[in-house]
Amino acid sequence: MTNENNKALLKVDGLVKHFPITRGIFRREVGSVNAVDGISFEIQERETLGLVGESGCGKSTAARVILQLIPATAGNVFFKGRDLTSLDKEELRKQRQHMQMIFQDPQDSLNPRMTVGSIISEPLMEHKKLQAEERSQRVEQLLISVGMNPKFTNRYPHEFSGGQRQRIGIARALALSPEFIICDEPIAALDVSIQAQVINLLEDLQEEFGLTYLFISHDLSMIRHIADRVAVMYLGRIVELASSQALYSTPLHPYTQALLSAVPIHDPKLERKRKGTILVGEVPSPANPPSGCNFSTRCPRAEDRCFKDSPEWREVSQGHQVACHLV
Q: How far apart are CA 47 and CA 61, in angstroms?
């Protein structure tokens, strides 16, 4: 949980990632896809920040740029005060052991030709000078910590269920004792019956190892339970950021209000009385975003200035930030 005395472990400042669009034999650049368009936020030590939004809004691209798996077009990413965007390959390699990622689909992220033991020990061989016996012991400890039998080291990923494969992915992410982990929709590919188990495991591991999470998801009902603060992303920009309690009780941005109105309420009487916000039209292409506010073309409350001027990112109450002319 967040603490006022905690320091920012990660600071993202004006992060931009544009992918060029090229045409012709000479690959002339004719435009760009604005996947991430100037996002800024901080994550405190031992905190979980949820990053939510529709598919295609730039969440996963932002995650990869933060870890410098792909280079940023502009902006900075500070991890423990060091700007990752300015590091050379060797310095970045040293930093990588402190930052890890849990991917969405364990079937795609685990090498089917490698045993579980080899998959989990691979980062240890890359970054740590351990004897074979020490590595084996570490792998067994990691499997136990994610609730799996340590004797499974010689088995292959296809021999496990989706939930078990994700646990293997989590064990691999923990191998180097990182401080910061990006969870990129880690339960989206899993059966609903085991999603809660994986979420509970991640919360237990955070408590045990003092981890800091950036938790990416499109499932707002789940994010509510795991995140201390929530950032809402639309078409490459963060439109609202607040504590989980404030965001769910008093959403300010029309897009956040629309997203939350689509989340079912368990009380049938309240559900029948509730008026949902239906968004018209499609999400604009990040290759041709609208002028002014990115959300203006779908916002039910848009005014003339919304189509002309980009809204300022500002704090409207303690810890509650929003980018909207109408707030």
A: 21
